[in-house]
Write a structure and sequence with these properties.
By secondary structure, this protein is an alpha+beta fold. It is built from two helices and five strands. It has a five-stranded antiparallel beta sheet with strand order 1-4-5-2-3. Strand 4 (74-84) and strand 5 (89-98) form a beta hairpin.
């Protein structure tokens, strides 16, 4: 019984260490106009599974992020993708700065 527990614990630890390093973060920014970034920040997030299904559908876009932050004049936009398990699960964030 003790040997089975140790084997199971070692297997779980190996899986955590191996799969825990399979996450990457990519980001990109696009400047809408020259000048200061702005005081307000708005975000829209969604999760994409297997590249086929999104948790928020098309609600993760620039307009939704600006609406969430109460922004009417956009000065900068960031797109951030966090990929887990070689792209099987992706967390996509659109972040907007402005006034």
């Amino acid at each position: 019984m003790k040997k089975q527990f140790l084997t199971l614990a070692a297997s779980a630890a190996l899986a955590v260490l191996t799969l825990g390093s399979c996450a990457t973060i990519n980001s990109g920014a696009a400047i809408a106009e020259k000048g200061p970034v702005g005081q307000k920040v708005g975000e829209a997030k969604s999760n994409i599974i297997l590249g086929l299904w999104s948790s928020k559908g098309e609600q993760n876009n620039l307009a939704q992020a600006a609406k969430n932050g109460g922004i009417t004049k956009v000065s900068q936009v960031e797109y951030i993708d966090k990929s887990i398990l070689f792209g099987l699960f992706i967390e996509h964030t659109t972040r907007v700065y402005g006034e």
